[in-house]
Amino acid sequence: KALDNVNLKVRPHSIHALMGENGAGKSTLLKCLFGIYQKDSGSILFQGKEIDFHSAKEALENGISMVHQELNLVLQRSVMD
């Protein structure tokens, strides 16, 4: 189980960093928030509303972005996309 009983609160209109040990679930948490991974259970609240993004595009359209550590996440897109 990568994530269990996680609470993360951030301030609007600011940049945040998530730090922790290797294997702690940082990337998994952010990928669930960003719509890359789908959560198995629980809920994600954003601006007081439950969200369940199914794509990075959907997350971006709702004001959520992230800097990825992997460079190969979107192989099927062109630079113009």
UniProtKB/TrEMBL annotation:
Residues 3-78 form the ABC transporter domain. Part of an ABC transporter complex involved in carbohydrate import. Could be involved in ribose, galactose and/or methyl galactoside import. Responsible for energy coupling to the transport system. This is Ribose/galactose/methyl galactoside import ATP-binding protein. Transmembrane segments: none annotated. InterPro entries: ABC_carbohydrate_import_ATPase, ABC_transporter-like_ATP-bd, P-loop_NTPase. Belongs to the ABC transporter superfamily. It holds the Pfam family ABC_tran. GO terms for cellular component: plasma membrane. Keywords: ATP-binding, Cell inner membrane, Cell membrane, Membrane, Nucleotide-binding, Repeat, Sugar transport, Translocase, Transport. The keyword NADP does not apply. Its EC number is 7.5.2.11.
